[in-house]
Amino acid sequence: MSMTHALYEFERVIPEAEVRERASRLLDHMVAAGEDPAGLDHTDFVPIAVKMRVRDWVYDALDHGFALDEPRWSISPEGDAHVILPFHDEAHAVVFRTLIL
Questions:
Q1: Which residues, other chains included, contact 55 with Cβ-Cβ below 8 Å and sequence gap of 6+?
Q2: What's the pTM value of the predicted model, to 2 decimals?
Q3: Contact between residue 50 and residue 81 where contact means Cβ atoms under 8 Å apart
């Protein structure tokens, strides 16, 4: 990823239900692997689940040759993940959003 300033940013919202489902699957995988999740619930896995989804989008963008800066994200009080994907080229951002998201 480049350190230059992105020219075009757009926000992608991952709904709370999807965030919760992804986090719950991570917890389920941990249990299936024989780990003891004592004291943990799906909310402990939300940051990891969001990072993994964002990572997948970054890999998709790079696979298509799209230049982007480091994505940013935050969790709203309602539990939705708000992800900012900063691209260097508006055309790449539009194609990425249309074809991949």
A1: none
A2: 0.82
A3: yes
The DSSP line for 32-75 is HTT---TT--GGGGHHHHHHHHHHHHHHHHHHTT--B---EEEE
> Which H/E stretch holds residue 85?
strand 81-87
pLDDT digits (tens, 9 = 90+) for 16-29: 999 999 999 999 99
Alpha-carbon distances, residue 100 vs 58, 75, 77, 94 (angstroms): 11, 22, 27, 10
Strand partners, 68: 87
Identify the DSSP state of 28. Answer: H
Alpha carbons 78 and 93: distance in angstroms, whole number: 27
